[in-house]
Amino acid sequence: MSSASEPLMTVSGLSSGYGPVTILRDIDISVAPGSVTALVGANGAGKTTLMKAIAGLLPAWSGAIRFDGKDITRVPTHERVGQGIVLVPEGRMVFTLLSVEQNLRLGAITPRARDNIGDRLEAMFKRFPRLQERRRQLAGSMSGGEQQMLAIGRGLMAKPRIVLLDEPTLGLAPIMVKQVFSVIEELKADGYTILLSEQNSRLALEAADHGYIIENGRVQLSGPGRELIDMPDVRRLYLGR
Amino acid sequence: MSTQLLFAALVAGSLYALVALGLNLVYGTLRLLNIAHGDLVMIGAYVAFWMLSLLGMPPVLSLFAAAALCGGFGWLIYVGIFRKLLSTPALARRLEANSLILFYGVSVILQNGVSLAFTSTARGYQYLNEVHRFAGVAASGNRLMLLGVALVLCLGMLLFLRFHLFGWSLRAVIERRDAAAVVGVDVDRVQMATICTGFAIAGVAGVLVSMTEQITPFMGFPFTIAALVVIVLGGLGNIFAGIVAGFALGFIETFGIAATSATYRSILIYGLFVAVLLLRPQGLFGKAIQAR
């Protein structure tokens, strides 16, 4: 068990990419337990690639990922989920041909998450009433915002110890963007540890305890979210003023 | 419409549905087009024939023996070849296209291996060929068994996919393998279980076929074609629609032949195949599934 001062997860010297193309170069980040940590930066900076590498969907070419004191760099994706590292992927990736409830129950497929599924399902419906209304409906028939809520709910069903939220507001209407951020606030209040990747830099840094600015696959700057917002360079380059 | 013809269509349809079920499961989860699928049906048929001839084992028990043998072959081929290739995305993409050629090789080896070992003479045996009469239908026991076993397996698979958590995880892998891994599904295990199941179902279908008709080492190819027509008709990877399409093909074939003559069988089947590809390539019931 890690003490409160130790990070829950650390990524050190990580490089990765697709085929011959290097995307991530020597990335170092750490996530403190119970915190919201934001990755911000332009489209194509490597945020999603980093999320995929942490989830195990992409191999690390070099460097290491440690979670709760253990090296998980070579652990396959489903076992990382089993340990509580849960990705809510970019583009939501809900199973469109399964019902809302089946999607949620499938979220609890790992051995660690299989107890009291019924109770946790009810709790999830309380958190996302919209999903209860659509419980028997095919996930593919829902709006983008509803699918995002389902993707988050599906992730929470896995009893995450860290939630990797990858671009949760991508393609959503402004009202839904607001809702997603209020969900993030709620999750934080409930004690979840969150790593958030977000193109909406201002909202993300406002919500975050700590932020990393990613540019061309490298960490350019890091610091407490509020401090980053107040830095003139950050304001000019990432916040549009 | 005679009930006799209806029964014949049901029997043919259930067999097509069963054979196509195995092919569709393997295609859906692994994205491998198993062109040797019909040859596994042939292997199942030979298991039944030799178990009866040499050991006097009733074909109903051979259902299990053939399932075990073909399922085991699926396991061997997965562990030996596909596991490693599928785990590397770049190789997996090429494999999908190359699987056709690879399985064609498997098909040639199986056909000629069996032909070499047992000669290409057609073989057959008598089993449950007493005739039952009901509701204007004269049905042999072996055809009733074929219909019964095929229906139970198809229905069982559908119920499993509808109600069981692992059934959902299989559907999740069919729809999006990366998303399945993200929720914690052990994709490797699902793939292995599916290839074993798909191959085993083909073996079972072979035993059922051998009860009702003569068998040869080259009997498999028409089954491969029929199964391909069925899964194209239903939409690749769509298990439920594939089963419906299997019965549809049985009905079209049986009533089509009754209305014309047996010489039109191939024209009917290939005509249907081409028509579906031209008019509705995503399948009659189809949502297109995503390429990897």
UniProtKB/TrEMBL annotation, chain A:
Reading the lineage from the top rank, the first entry is Bacteria
UniProt key word Metal-binding: no
Known InterPro entries for this protein?
AAA+_ATPase, ABC_transporter-like_ATP-bd, ABC_transporter-like_CS, BCAA_Transport_ATP-bd_LivF, P-loop_NTPase
Give the molecular function GO annotations. Answer: ATP binding; ATP hydrolysis activity; branched-chain amino acid transmembrane transporter activity
- What PROSITE patterns is this protein classified in? ABC_TRANSPORTER_1, ABC_TRANSPORTER_2
Q: Does the keyword Transport apply?
A: yes
> Which keywords label this protein?
Amino-acid transport, ATP-binding, Nucleotide-binding, Transport
Q: Name one GO biological process term.
A: L-amino acid transport
Please list the residue ranges annotated as the ABC transporter domain.
9-241
Q: Quote the SMART domains the UniProt record gives.
A: AAA (SM00382)
Q: One Pfam family for this entry, by name? A: ABC_tran
**Family (UniProt):** Belongs to the ABC transporter superfamily.
Protein name according to UniProt: ABC transporter ATP-binding protein
> Which species is the source of this protein?
Metarhizobium album
